[in-house]
Amino acid sequence: MKDKRLSDLQTLVSLCKRRGFIFQSSEVYGGLNSCWDYGPLGSQFKLQVKLSWWQRMTKRHDIVGLDAAILMHPTVWKASGHVDGFSDPLSDCKNCKARFRLDTAPEKDGKTVCPSCGSGDITAPRNFNLMFKTHMGPVEDSGAVVYLRPETAQGIFVNFENVATSMRKKIPFGIAQIGKSFRNEITPGNFTFRTREFEQMEMQYFVKPGSDMEWFEKWKSERMAHYADLGFDPKYLRFKEHGPTELAHYARAAFDVQYEFPFGWQELEGVHNRGDFDLTQHSKFSGKKLEYFDEAAKEKFVPYVIETAVGCDRLALALLCHAYAEETLEGAAATESEKGEKAGEKTEKAEATRIVLRFKPELAPTQVAVLPLSKKPDLQNLGMKLRDDLSASYRADYDESASIGKRYRRQDEIGTPFCVTVDFDTLVDQKVTVRHRDKMTQDRVELSQIKNYLTEKLLSF
Ligand code: GAP
Question: Is the model's pLDDT at 3 over the cut of 90?
Answer without folding.
Answer: no
